[in-house]
Amino acid sequence: MKSVPGTLPVICASAPNVLILACHGATGPEISQPALRHPAAPATRVSFCARGAHGGWRVVFSSCETLERKRREQRAEQRAVLVAPLQALLQNVFSVLFPSDCRLCRTPLNNISRIPVCAECLEAIQPARAPQCVICGDRLTGAQLLVGNGRCHGCRDFEPEFARAISFGEYESGLRGLIHLLKYESVLPVASVLGNMLAFVIEELLPACGDALPLVVPVPLHKSKRSDRGFNQAELITRAAVKRLPKRLELATGLLVRQRVTISQVGLTREQRIENMRDAFRVRDRHQVRGATVILADDVMTTGTTLSECARVLKQAGAERVFAATVARAFQGALQDIAIHVEREPVIHAEEEAIAVSV
Ligand SMILES: [Zn+2]
Ligand SMILES: [Zn+2]
Fold first, then answer.
1. Do residues 183 and 353 make contact, with C-beta atoms less than 8 angstroms apart?
2. DSSP at 137
3. Domain extents for the chain?
4. Extended beta strands in the chain, E state
5. Of 145 and 232, which is predicted with more confidence?
6. Distance 175 CA to ligand 1 centre (A)
7. Where do runs of H (alpha helix) occur along 98-152?
8. What is the DSSP code string of 191-233?
9. Ligand 2: centre distance to CA 304 (Å)
10. Residue 138 C-alpha to ligand 1 middle, in angstroms?
11. CA-to-CA distance for 136 and 350, rounded, in angstroms?
12. CA 335 to CA 267: how far, in whole Å?
């Protein structure tokens, strides 16, 4: 059995779970034979005594807990040292055995990830920074910034049914690619990344919701559409978002029902869009909605007609106020590009996109 004066702990060779410290004032600890156990200490904790300079036995202390913690830390450090190179090796082997490219920029991936997108592409997706309409979030042009109290032409002429809509970023390049991976290629883990973005938006809306916690309602798909796709992307993204929020919000997935299939809103006049959306939604449980503040959640907002119609139906059922949160926003100037894109896409994707931009 060894002991060292001062504060350095030494492991007792014969009993490695015992930590021995020298007694203060002692020229060298004289280790006593009786082992005292503090009444409150666990049975595994053992205390030793040593004779001090003034005579008498004093507790020098021992603790297997402290030692165990140190051991755990050491083991974790050792693991990190051993595992890091192994992980790097595995990732390289994986990329050789299962070569794949980033689905957005096509550069080879050399990391094991659930999402087939490189870190650079993910980092390039940033929140929209353009001046935006305070109601619908559309990009404001120079002239609109000067008049209209921060509202776009559309909101000045016909105020939407939602109080405010916010989106994380513009529906273009990387963000659009990510949404397509989820919706059209069923890369479901992408919902988690998009959920982070949606959580960011919902948090921004929370102060406007007041004291009452809002209901979070994903925009539903028609059952035929959901059955074809196998999932509702808005629901997956919203579910991921709610998990990341600091406040626990109620996710009401079945509250709103899409009871009719609609066509793309792109290229339609305002009257045609309203007609297209007529009776498309209904509220399943009016009691749940009565007096509630609702945050509608979706992947993409285009014209805003769908979200406005959902808000109208919810308010008609008794909702106090309705906000809208989406991952991406197709700014009105860019809708022409989307319409062209729809025509150039393969048939299956064109149909999907047409419906996607209509919701
Ligand atoms: Zn990439
Ligand atoms: Zn607007």
1. no
2. -
3. 7-65, 128-357
4. 10-11, 19-20, 49-51, 57-59, 164-170, 215-218, 250-251, 256-258, 281-283, 293-301, 321-329
5. 232
6. 12
7. 119-124, 142-146
8. HHHHHHHHHHHHHHHGGGG-SSPPEEEEPPPBHHHHHHHSS-H
9. 9
10. 28
11. 26
12. 8
Q: Which residue has the tokens 């005292």?
A: 36
Distance from C-alpha of 327 to C-alpha of 114, rounded to nearest angstrom: 20
Which ligand sits nearest to residue 165's alpha carbon? 2
As beta bridge partners, residue 10 has 20
List of residues 6+ apart from 48 with CB closer than 8 A: 18, 20, 31, 32, 35, 36, 59, 60, 61, 62
CATH number of 128-357: 3.40.50.2020
Q: Read off the pLDDT of each residue in 250-266 and give the average, rounded to a whole number.
A: 90
Tens-digit pLDDT profile for residues 5-41 = 443 343 444 444 433 333 343 334 433 333 333 333 3
Instruction: Map tokens 């083991």 to a residue.
Output: 75
Does residue 198 contact residue 168 with C-beta atoms inside 8 Å? Answer: yes
The separation between CA 78 and the C-alpha centre of its own chain, rounded to angstroms, equals 32
Q: Is the pTM of this model over 0.90?
A: no
Q: Which ligand has an atom closest to residue 166 CA? A: 2
Q: Which ligand is nearest to the CA of 164?
A: 2
Strand 57-59 vs strand 321-329: parallel, antiparallel, or unpaired? Answer: unpaired
- Ligand 2 (ion): residues with CB under 5 Å are 133, 135-136, 138, 152, 155
Average pLDDT over residues 202-227: 94
Report the separation in Å between the CA atom of 139 and the middle of ligand 1, taken as the mean of its atom positions. 27
What spacing in Å lies between the alpha carbon of 216 and ligand 2's midpoint?
22
For residue 108, report the distance from its CA to the centre of ligand 1, in Å: 8
Q: Which ligand is closest in space to the CA of residue 178?
A: 1
pLDDT band at 343 (very low <50, low <70, confident <90, very high): very low
The CA 228 to ligand 2 mean position distance, Å, reads 33
